[in-house]
Amino acid sequence: METKPIRQVQEEIVDEFSVFDNWMDKYNYLIELSRDLPAIDAKHKTEEHLIKGCQSKVWLRAEWDNGKIHFTADSDAIITRGLIALLIRVFSNRTPEEIMEADLEFIDQIGLRENLSPTRSNGLLAMLKQMKLYAVAFDAAKNKE
Questions:
Q1: Terminal Cα distance for the chain, rounded
Q2: 33, 54, 90, 127: which is the annotated catalytic residue?
């Protein structure tokens, strides 16, 4: 199965959110997305996988498989779980280079940055930063092989 380009996935997300007129509907959609996020294995809900900088607990795990990074995650907060579901949709099954070079325009285009509370906004940035750090680490390890 061919993976769609990151830009195309972002455009699809923007299209999905564009059907909602107000932020309550968009929040409800994030909650819906959170329900579709496959649960991370309980054994990975450890301090090692906990993202620093999030007010709620967010566990993020990255696995290297055939030159691509696969992410799994969970959160104890439903909106935050929806946010990480969006990021996983964009970044999972990508090469480190794709993740490192990606400019996530959908965050601003759907209004996340200005409509999230400051703590959730900081959490979103922390999740994004952690995913990019995984990409950098896997890229460095790959180049040592």
A1: 27
A2: 54
Q: Hey, what amino acid is at 12?
A: E
Establish whether 36 is a catalytic residue. no
Distance, in Å, from the CA atom of 84 to the CA atom of 64, rounded to the nearest integer, reads: 19
The whole-angstrom separation of Cα 139 and Cα 67 is 9
Query: Among the residues of 19-95, which ranges form H helices?
Result: 23-36, 78-91
Confidence of residue 53 (pLDDT cuts 50, 70, 90): confident
State yes or no: pLDDT of 15 exceeds 70: yes
Domains and their CATH numbers in the chain? 6-144 (3.90.1010.10)
Please tell me the pTM assigned to this model. Answer: 0.93
Under 8 Å between Cβ of 54 and 127: yes
Give yes or no for a contact between 72 and 61, defined as CB atoms under 8 angstroms apart: yes
